[in-house]
Each structure stands twice: as C-alpha cells, then as structure tokens.
Amino acid sequence: MHAASRDSLKVVQGRFDELVTDLDSSGLKQLGDELSSVVRLLSKEVLLRKHFASRAEDDSARKTALVDGVFGEKAGEPTLEVLRSAVAERWSKSRDLNSALERLAHLAVLIDAERADAIESTEDELFRFGRALDATPRLSSLLSDESTDFDGRLQLLDNVLAGKANSYTESLLKQALRLLQGRSFEVVVPELADLAANRRGESVAQVTAANALTEEQTERLERVLSQIYGRNMSVQLDIDPKVLGGLSITVGDEVVDGTVASRLASASHYVPH
Q: How many domains are contained in the chain?
C-alpha cells in the first residue's frame, strides 16, 4: 500500500477497534462474515469499488449515503460503521480498499480467537497448513483454481482440515478461500499466520532446522531474536535434515546470514546433534 492507503487503513482500523469492544463472539462472527461478503461484492462490482475508493473529499457524504443504500438492509450496524469510515477515507488504489476490508474480516476472527485464548494455536495451525501446501503443490493448485466450483474446493478444504484445526483456523481459511481474487492459496495462508502473530504483538521468524528443537531451545531462540530485532519474535519451525549449518532463519524478507545462524546455534546449543 502507498502512504495514503496506509494512513486510511490506520483510521479505519481505529474505528474497527472501537466497534469490536462491545461485540460478543456471535457479533464478531457476523462482522467477519459481512465484511467478507462486501469484499466479494466489490471484487465483482469494480465501478462501485472505484467510486467508494475515489479521492474526492467533498464526495464522502454521498458515498456514505450509498453505503447505506447498498448495504443497509444486508449488514449490521457495526459493519455499516466500518464501511462508512472506509469510504470517507482516501485510497491510492481501489484494490487497497478491498485489502483493508479483508484484513478487518480476518481480524474479527482473530479477536474472537484471542478472547478464547486460542490465538497462539490458531497461528501455529495456519503456519503448519501453509507448510503442508508448500509440500503438496497439487493441493494448493486445486484450492487456488477459481475456475472450478467453489463448493467443491470448500469441501476439499473441509476434508483436509478434518480434526486438524480449531474453529478459528477453519473460519480464517474459508474466508481466504472465498477471497482469493486471483492469488495463490499457498501465498495467502502464510499472510494469515503473520497477521495472527502481529495480533499477538509479535513478528514471525521462519526457522528451518536440521533436527527438532525442544521447547526450551525454541524459547531461547525467540529471546535471542527478540533482542537482535528489538521486538517480540515468534518462531515458526520447519524440519529439513538437509539444511546447511543445521539452522536457517528468515525474518520477513530478510534471510539471516548463514554464519550468524550457525554461531547462534553453536553458542546457544539450539540445534540438537
């Protein structure tokens, strides 16, 4: 997102945060479902989306009235308030408006998970599902193919997840499947895991180790990385016996130098031998 859209997102998310304070679990579910439906509609109705995202500041009242006219009988007041806030802001690209609303739909589920003390397990399940997609390109291809029947892809997702994920993870993945908009599912799922980590006030370090780490080793690695990066870090671990040096660490787009990773492993005994 460009600066204008980032600033707009902050404003809209601020309004969103105010609204969700008074919502219970069913209210959060309704908000997430309704925002998802709005994103799907705006993905199809490009002219409507472009009008809502237009930069004309003196047009905000008319756009707000249009929100009520289009969605007033289909959405609850919290959803309408989020939309009114969104269309009153300026967006660099109309797609940024959709991205912002999609993010808030996901956050509604994550806040519900947070209140149920399930956000950490949700983050972990999302990460592991993303790894499963990486390991099975055919599955990712089938789930990402928007030219095929959606209900069939949804049933496939249900079959894959059966007994392996909590209700919040399932809701997030189903939201993402509905809102792919040409993106690959294997790209979207790690973004959901990152969003869950960010909600917990952490950044994610993707760690590949030659051998499994103990809980103590993982916690120690998180502490060291937190000191290095100056913020809380959450380690997502993948095992690959072929990894050079026994340890590979990636934070966002940054790959930690292999020599540094090896020294971390050596000094703190992170990687079992």
A: 3
Which one of 115, 150, 170 terminates a domain? 115
Whole-model pTM: value is 0.79
Tokens of 111: 């806040």
In one-letter notation, the amino acid at residue 113 is: A
Q: Looking at the structure, do residues 178 and 209 belong to the same domain, yes or no? A: no
Tens digits of residue pLDDT in 220-231 = 888 888 877 777
The two beta strands, 247-251 and 254-255, are antiparallel
Q: Which two tokens stand for residue 110?
A: 């994550």
pLDDT tens for 263-272 read 555 544 444 4
Which DSSP symbol is given to 94?
H
Dihedral sign (CA 7, 13, 19, 22): negative
Question: Could you tell me the residue range of the domain that residue 19 belongs to?
Answer: 3-115
Integer-rounded Cα radius of gyration of the chain: 20
Distance CA 96, CA 189 (A): 19
- In the chain, alpha helices (H): 3-20, 25-44, 46-52, 60-71, 77-87, 94-115, 119-135, 137-144, 150-161, 167-178, 185-199, 215-229, 258-268
Among candidate residues 199, 214, 241, the one where a domain is terminated? 199
Position with higher pLDDT, 253 vs 105: 105
Domain membership of residue 273 (yes or no) is no
pLDDT in tens, 58-112: 677 889 999 999 999 899 999 999 999 999 998 999 999 999 999 999 999 999 9
